[in-house]
Amino acid sequence: MTTTTSTVESTIASRRQQGGGALIGYLPVGFPTLSESIDAAVALVAGGVDILELGLPYSDPVMDGPVIQAATQQALANGFRLRHGIEAVAAITAQVDAPVLVMTYWNPIVQYGVDRFADDLHSAGGAGLITPDLIPDDAAAWFAASDRTGLDRVFLAAPSSSDARLAQAVQASRGFVYAVSTMGITGARSDVDSAARVLIDRLRAVGSTSACVGLGISTPSQVREILGYADGAIVGSALVKALAEGGLPLLAVLARDLAAGARDIRPAV
Amino acid sequence: MSLKAEAGPYFGDFGGRFVPESLVAALDELTNEYALARSDPAFAAELMELHRTYTGRPSIITEVPRFAAHAGGARVILKREDLNHTGSHKINNVLGQALLTKRIGKTRVIAETGAGQHGVATATAAALFGLDCVVYMGEVDTERQALNVARMRLLGAEVVPVTTGSRTLKDAINDAMRDWVTNVENTNYIFGTVAGPHPFPAMVRDFQKIIGEEARQQVLDLTGRLPDAVTACVGGGSNAMGIFHAFLDDADVALYGYEAGGDGAETLRHAATITKGRPGILHGARSFLLQDEDGQTVESHSISAGLDYPGVGPEHSWLASIGRATYLPITDAEAMNALRLLSRTEGIIPAIESAHALAGTLDLGKRLGPDSTILVNLSGRGDKDMETAGRYFDLLDKGAAQL
């Protein structure tokens, strides 16, 4: 990993030193409405989420399961525009200090303009991008734009990735490497795959010092289990479901419970 | 450099692998196994034997003078992919990928389908090779192609109606990719067209290029020279790449791809991706794409389910960008008129998809004149389209409609 002043990376490291790990919370921009999605993101941080992952709704989200598909389709039907993503980042970073990453499929960024998006995201106070359908092999334009602006770039690592590809993901990423817990798409699962632990071990072996696990994580006990070996745990569909079914009050309760699972796992350093 | 030598991952600026990392290992495996299979004479021999004894290859060519009288008197020759087993060119690719699946040792195949032709072909190959088969099909398409759904189920495949997004081909591909990400360990994705991430565009093209290789020689044998133009319909573009490829380095042979113009390319209801789209990324590749300002995919419209797709294969985008092939829109009405014309003048009922190529040929023949020869890829037969055609031309009486 390149030397960096990444606030995402320092936030994760600081949580590790305090004896726990980072809790990363996903919500889509524009769901149920733009202003409510901003309030929901702020509520996540108030509840104890360390890093925000804001999803940009996209017409063809191949990595997403039914819960996130339904939410992002509703956001699109309500008139979501890419500039709303930038506006949301600015509105959230004006209210909270937690770093804000944007999760987006690649075509919207290409159409907005990779450099223009990087500049606007940086100006809005955003920390970087998580790119589920962009692999380092095809990411030359994003490498250039993120190096120029200092934005984090989070690439994915999968249980099926070869050691060489894991090393590439670690080298290419800044902030953290997104370790996909299981072969599949987003959505809560009762058991988080043992594949996640093996994957984190393999990422450590190729030099990762900041690796977070996502996909299928929905409960405080799963967060606690994962932070026993990983640097961060990413929760998405469970938060979206809580927001959809119980609004801000239920979302805040879940965020607090998940955050409790992320603390005091081992003695502080 | 020979245009025929292009093998991906990029064709000019188009192509690539814009996929989740989880799929990269499977795409690498497919790329490597395909490279080995390509250089293995036993693989080629097994595929050719299947084509001879199962598909019915080589498919014939048919000269159609009564139809050609409406095309400015140009000589019109059809490449009869409609006579293949399962009724279209799709079987050429599916048998190749099914053999590859066996070689890799996977036991389950998945596929997407629009009109149902690729789904039927995949279900057929799965039955032949004893593979489990799941076909994803947009709910809208399961309704307009109900007969093909029944065919797939009869062949033992599970058909999953896709209810997300526009409920057509693009959403079927999304769900097939989600299935593949989840079940990649035992599952191979038999992709139906020359789109998608590498190696699919080059691999599907290679399995389809037999169309042009046969037809090029057949036309030479019949007429003593190469055709002046080769025409095909273009949705994702597999039948078009299949017939174009053998002619790519024949600079004097013009190549025409006809896209689905729907209500008209100037309206919002069409699937004329190269005519009206601009470069973007969908389903793993950079290519022309129907999209809004934000890069959200726009829904396409065509009377033909097989052409109703907002993307197109990257090799076509490249051929368009370098001017080697020309892509033009054909409206629903023009295609349906050509379908009726071929039926009545030659006794051949084409698929609505292929009728787009016929409609384009009618216009092209008038421009090229009576001394010209045009080779048309008749990519599929129209049996599956009888309900659509029956309604369109008001051919179904009340008794028949109630069957």
From TrEMBL, chain A:
Enzyme Commission identifier(s): 4.2.1.20
Top-level division of the source organism's lineage: Bacteria
Swiss-Prot/TrEMBL catalytic activity: (1S,2R)-1-C-(indol-3-yl)glycerol 3-phosphate + L-serine = D-glyceraldehyde 3-phosphate + L-tryptophan + H2O
One cellular component (GO) term of this entry: cytosol
Pathway annotation: Amino-acid biosynthesis; L-tryptophan biosynthesis; L-tryptophan from chorismate: step 5/5
Assigned keywords, A-Z: Amino-acid biosynthesis, Aromatic amino acid biosynthesis, Lyase, Tryptophan biosynthesis
InterPro entries per the UniProt record, alphabetical: Aldolase_TIM (IPR013785), RibuloseP-bd_barrel (IPR011060), Trp_synthase_alpha_AS (IPR018204), Trp_synthase_suA (IPR002028)
Record's subunit section: Tetramer of two alpha and two beta chains.
Record-given protein name: Tryptophan synthase alpha chain
Source taxonomy: Bacteria, Bacillati, Actinomycetota, Actinomycetes, Micrococcales
TrEMBL record, chain B:
Segments forming domain Tryptophan synthase beta chain-like PALP: 57-380
UniProt superkingdom: Bacteria
Enzyme class: lyase
EC number: 4.2.1.20
Modified residues (N6-(pyridoxal phosphate)lysine): 90
Reaction catalysis annotation: (1S,2R)-1-C-(indol-3-yl)glycerol 3-phosphate + L-serine = D-glyceraldehyde 3-phosphate + L-tryptophan + H2O
GO terms, molecular function: tryptophan synthase activity
Keywords of the record: Amino-acid biosynthesis, Aromatic amino acid biosynthesis, Lyase, Pyridoxal phosphate, Tryptophan biosynthesis
Keyword Amino-acid biosynthesis: yes
Cited function: The beta subunit is responsible for the synthesis of L-tryptophan from indole and L-serine.
Family membership noted in the UniProt record: Belongs to the TrpB family.
Complexes and interactors: Tetramer of two alpha and two beta chains.
Stated name of the protein: Tryptophan synthase beta chain
Species of origin: Cryobacterium fucosi
